[in-house]
């Protein structure tokens, strides 16, 4: 990233100059919630237009062969076998934000968007949030708004462009293109869109379910670290002076004092990939032993887990105003947490090498803890310590309830938590699958495509260089 663009991102996060003030943004969101007409109701698969169960291959699919399908998989690893439904969506979609510069500050063109699975209707979304099937207009509806700005973007105007994974326990090898494009000319601001500063977006992240998952993953890609940003010493000092008192900013721009080197992290991940014995086999949904398949629901008969439901959907102002589709309904609220600790005077985050059956390349860096709140699987010292500290409610730095992507998940919420480790944490009890990384190291890995999972990316998006 050029120094001038870095400063515009940083100014957007630190400066309180806004095109519209915070109260106007909140009022706009509230008005959209009241005015946009929606009707989401449960249905049966047999009653959905264009969706059916293909007996031959055992999948739920769209008649066009596009969008996504739901199939069964069998995962075998270390003599254990697990079966489940999973979403197959091989298309790479766009998660894109347009930015423009005013007075050396980047402003982000954000969308008030309703997805069928949103618990509260409107959430703040990227400028463009579209699957390949959407922008190819397989649904026979209109083309997504602002699509041409991304399709025709010149390389010099692309500020970052990465391929990132989605939820690896519910998607099979799904990735999306996280991209930010700057414009130099005035563009029309359509009805459901507003310019916001990065400070405003991060402020909205403090409210439960106001900022959607896709916005958070795109924001996490902003490249603040100094690893690849080859700035002069004077430029670095300019940045340091802007964020002098912020401990998280210090963790982002640190150039030394690391607990471990990134080479060790990459070596660890390569070893996990090389030695992994996990095998994934596709199965017909009706052959999944623990799962009950019916016309109105798919669920696990033995233990609590997610369900597949079917919905008829009407949302005013979408590319098509009505459609039907399957949605995944969660088992409950999940806890997603990062434990942080000062090491060598720099805040480090306790990351976990996380394997999930659907991720693109075996293992990614995840947060310290990711469990179901009501029935947590606490398998080691770190997960027990972190879970207990969350419930003690002390040393909490960030705590907010946020949604998963409402286009595929129905009313799915997570508690997103960042908390400080205390002196009770025994460093010598932390096993090898956990590593202490600075915020800058995580940020660097995010910019290297599919190294950091969606949960960890979205937690880092909560952190402001201006906190």
TrEMBL record:
- State the Gene Ontology terms under molecular function: lyase activity
Q: Record's InterPro entries?
A: EvaA-like, EvaA-like_sf
Top-level taxonomic group:
Bacteria
Q: Pfam families this protein is in? A: Hexose_dehydrat
Domain dTDP-4-dehydro-6-deoxy-alpha-D-glucopyranose 2,3-dehydratase: where?
23-221, 269-462
What is the protein name stated in its UniProt record?
Oxidase EvaA
What organism is this sequence from? Answer: Halanaerobium congolense
């Amino acid at each position: 990233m050029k120094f001038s663009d870095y400063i515009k991102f940083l100014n957007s996060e630190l400066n309180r100059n806004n095109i519209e003030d915070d109260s106007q943004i909140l009022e706009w969101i509230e008005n959209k919630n009241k005015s946009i007409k929606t009707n989401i109701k449960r249905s049966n698969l047999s009653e959905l237009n264009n969706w059916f169960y293909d007996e031959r291959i055992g999948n739920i699919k769209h008649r066009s062969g596009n969008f996504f399908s739901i199939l069964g998989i069998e995962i075998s690893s270390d003599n254990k076998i697990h079966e489940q439904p999973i979403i197959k969506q091989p298309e790479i979609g766009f998660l894109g934000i347009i930015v423009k510069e005013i007075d050396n500050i980047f402003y982000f063109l954000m969308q008030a968007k309703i997805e069928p699975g949103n618990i509260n209707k409107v959430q703040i979304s990227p400028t463009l949030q579209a699957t390949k099937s959407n922008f190819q207009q397989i649904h026979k509806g209109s083309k997504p708004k602002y699509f041409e700005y991304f399709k025709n973007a010149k390389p010099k105007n692309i500020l970052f462009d990465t391929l990132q994974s989605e939820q690896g326990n519910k998607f099979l090898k799904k990735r999306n293109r996280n991209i930010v494009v700057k414009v130099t000319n005035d563009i029309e601001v359509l009805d459901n869109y507003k310019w916001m500063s990065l400070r405003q977006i991060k402020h909205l992240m403090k409210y439960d379910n106001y900022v959607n998952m896709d916005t958070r993953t795109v924001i996490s890609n902003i490249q603040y670290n100094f690893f690849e940003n080859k700035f002069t010493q004077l430029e670095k000092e300019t940045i340091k002076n802007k964020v002098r008192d912020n401990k998280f900013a210090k963790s982002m721009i640190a150039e030394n004092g690391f607990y471990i080197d990134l080479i060790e992290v990459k070596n660890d991940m390569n070893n996990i990939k090389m030695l992994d014995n996990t095998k994934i086999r596709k199965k017909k949904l009706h052959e999944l032993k623990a799962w009950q398949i019916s016309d109105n629901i798919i669920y696990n008969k033995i233990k609590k887990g997610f369900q597949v439901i079917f919905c008829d959907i009407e949302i005013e102002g979408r590319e098509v105003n009505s459609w039907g589709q399957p949605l995944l309904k969660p088992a409950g609220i999940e806890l997603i947490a990062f434990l942080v600790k000062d090491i060598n005077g720099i805040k480090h985050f306790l990351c976990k090498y996380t394997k999930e059956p659907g991720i693109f390349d075996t293992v990614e860096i995840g947060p310290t803890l990711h469990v179901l709140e009501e029935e947590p699987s606490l398998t080691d010292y770190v997960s027990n310590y972190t879970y207990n500290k969350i419930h003690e409610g002390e040393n909490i730095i960030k705590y907010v309830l946020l949604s998963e992507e409402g286009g595929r998940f129905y009313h799915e919420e997570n508690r997103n938590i960042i908390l400080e480790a205390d002196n009770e944490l025994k460093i010598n009890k932390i096993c090898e699958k956990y590593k202490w990384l600075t915020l800058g190291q995580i940020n660097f890995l995010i910019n290297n495509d599919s190294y950091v999972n969606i949960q960890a990316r979205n937690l880092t998006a909560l952190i402001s260089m201006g906190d």
